[in-house]
Amino acid sequence: MLGYLLLVLSAVALIVTLSRAWRTRQFLSRAVRAPGTVTRITVTSEEVPAYGDNSAVTTRYFTPHVEFARQDGTLTEFESSVADIKTPGFSVGEVVTVVYEPGDPWATAQIDNPGVWRRTVLSGLATVLLLLSSIVVFWNAD
After folding, report:
1. What is the value of pTM for the model shown?
2. Bridging pattern class, strands 84-85 and 57-69
3. Among the four residues 21, 50, 100, 103, which has the most C-beta atoms within 10 Å?
4. Domain ranges of the chain
5. pLDDT tens digits, 107-123
6. Which of 50, 98, 51, 45 lies closest to 70, judged by CA?
7. CB neighbours of 109 closer than 8 A, spacing ≥ 6?
8. Partner residues linked to 85 by β-bridges
9. pLDDT in tens, 3-57
10. Side-chain half-sphere of 61: how many Cα atoms within 13 Å?
């Protein structure tokens, strides 16, 4: 029974992954590209509480803010939705490529790098793990 449940969850996860891939591809096909400049990097810290014999761990996140000129020349700044952990992936003044939908640049602007695909990749990894789990359950059912 568990194997079938995992198989159904795998199928749902695959549909979600394919849907995410389709949406990302559609976004990138209609997105406008523009040069942008990293204007600042916000540093935030998150402390993970201690458990057992371990001490608390503080993780630092580095989030770039990027300014770019839209097609009409209007300057727009956005905070990247992807933060780097432990060390900044960008430096202030660095020129990056920005992708955005002209109709809603504030909500859609992103740095054009592999991070654009992060949700698809994470969904794909979850799909693979579910599929492998269902295979293991079926394999051990004998």
Report:
1. 0.75
2. antiparallel
3. 100
4. 2-139
5. 999 999 988 898 899 99
6. 98
7. 66, 68, 76, 78, 98, 99, 100
8. 61
9. 888 889 999 999 999 999 999 999 999 999 999 999 999 999 988 777 777 778 8
10. 11
